[in-house]
Amino acid sequence: MHYRFLPNFRLVLLLLLTILLANCSDNGGGSDDSNPPISSQDINTTRFTIVEVNTNTVAGTEATYNWSVTNAPSQNYSLVNTNAKEALFAATDTGIYELAVVINDKGATQTKKISITVNKETKELKTFISKVFDFRPAPGQFINDLPAANDGDTTERVLARANSYLTKKNGDLISLGGFGGYVVFGFDHTIVNVKGKRDFRVLGNAFWADANPNPDLTMRGGSSEAGVIMVSYDRNKNGLPDDEWYEIEGAGHKMAKTIANYEITYFRPDPNKKPVPGGGTGTVQFTDVEYIFWKDNQGKEGYMAQNNAYNHSLDYWPKWLKDQPSITFKGTRLPDNAVDESGTGSYFVQYAFLYGYADNAPNNDDDSAIDINWAIDKNGNKVQLAGIDFVKVYNGLNQQAGWLGETSTEVLGATDLHLLGENIPTR
Ligand SMILES: [Ca+2]
Ligand SMILES: [Ca+2]
Ligand SMILES: [Ca+2]
């Protein structure tokens, strides 16, 4: 308002001063060619986006770097590769974040500052899955039902159906079948690995038992069918999950009976041969028949029993793979978690692993929420990820639980906890 009343000479003075200052900074910048003006390193970005921050400095190959955030409007950010020349930064809140990097080049240290302005995104982001890229369930009692598959369906058509089931706020269940069966999906933005907080959740249909007949146990259980979660960052920025995968190391990964690099092959049943009764491991065997033969890389083999307790289609083999004689899956096999607490085969409790899986704890439980910081590489080493774009979930159990049949992970969707404003501290 009061600019109108400024005398003209003051405006002229202001202009002169501005020109003078601009010249000064030009001269200052020119005095040291290896130090371009700081303003050239300032970055503009949007929330839920990973940006690479560079020192823009020529330093020797032996130089060391130490990145840090010196001022932030919010703690909901991620800064990784803090000892590399280029660090990765992402934030879930808008504002100006000040970063500093200390460069030590053979004892000569210098500090550079970078300012990152995080703006609100222009397009509304989805809190849920935006695309299903792959769906390859193992055989199981809910295959061809969740999602529905008919004779003559192709892999593409079933994938499109799985996509329509999961890419909405209130999704529909899909079943991953026996051990190893999997689904791969992505989001329309990067899920940021906020430090000290859990970042996303895979939704399933796990629930706690109302009453466990065994009063001595303190573990939580009910229907827990742990799916192992893998994550990936779209490093090559092509929008496809063709980058390196990292596994979320849940509590079960550290248990003695867990088998890394487990591999299983299922064989298509002969449609002309009647299944043999009497298979299965539960005590209620009269409902079970030996059905899907499998072999693993531990020298074991067995049958997935056909379970008549439910009125399913009872066609366990994926209909869209009718011409394929076998399917092989690989992954981390978690210890069996189903216990016949009745002793008579009537009441099975599937004990939950403490944290770190899909379909293991109910969707409203903190321990169904995942911290990206739990990710490990294929050698079991912890990795630092600023965020992730893709998730893979596979069934981590190879188990028959009596009349319940084989244990199979179900997936109902996935959510970005930061976009939803859910604050769940890590373990
Ligand atoms: Ca986190
Ligand atoms: Ca389930
Ligand atoms: Ca990619």
List the helices and strands and how they pair.
Layout (H helix, E strand, L loop, with lengths): L7 H23 L12 E4 L4 E4 L9 E8 L5 E4 L5 E6 L3 E11 L2 E12 L11 E6 L18 H12 L7 E2 L6 E11 L7 E4 L3 E2 L12 E3 L3 E6 L12 E4 L10 E9 L8 E2 L10 E9 L4 E7 L18 E8 L4 E3 L7 E4 L17 E2 L4 E2 L10 E9 L14 E2 L1 E4 H4 L7
Parallel strand pairs: 1-7
Antiparallel strand pairs: 2-5, 3-6, 4-5, 6-7, 8-10, 9-26, 10-25, 11-23, 11-27, 12-13, 13-22, 14-15, 14-25, 15-24, 16-18, 16-20, 17-18, 18-19, 21-22
The structure holds calcium ion (3 copies).
Question: Top keywords for this entry?
Answer:
427 residues; mainly beta; Immunoglobulin-like; 2 domains; five-stranded antiparallel β-sheet; 27 strands; binds calcium ion
General description of the model:
- It is a single chain.
- The protein has 427 residues and is mainly beta.
- The chain has two domains: 34-119, Immunoglobulin-like (Sandwich); 131-420, no CATH class.
- The chain is 9% helix and 35% strand.
- It has three helices and 27 strands.
- It has helices at residues 8-30, 155-166, 417-420, and strands at residues 43-46, 51-54, 64-71, 77-80, 86-91, 95-105, 108-119, 131-136, 174-175, 182-192, 200-203, 207-208, 221-223, 227-232, 245-248, 259-267, 276-277, 288-296, 301-307, 326-333, 338-340, 348-351, 369-370, 375-376, 387-395, 410-411, 413-416.
- The strands form seven sheets. A six-stranded antiparallel β-sheet has the order 8-10-25-14-15-24.
- A hairpin with a 2-residue loop joins β6 and β7.
- The chain is elongated, with a radius of gyration of 27 Å.
- The two termini are 53 Å apart.
- The model is unreliable at 1-7, 11-40, 278-287 and 309-313 (pLDDT under 50).
- The structure holds calcium ion (3 copies).
- One calcium ion binds next to loops.
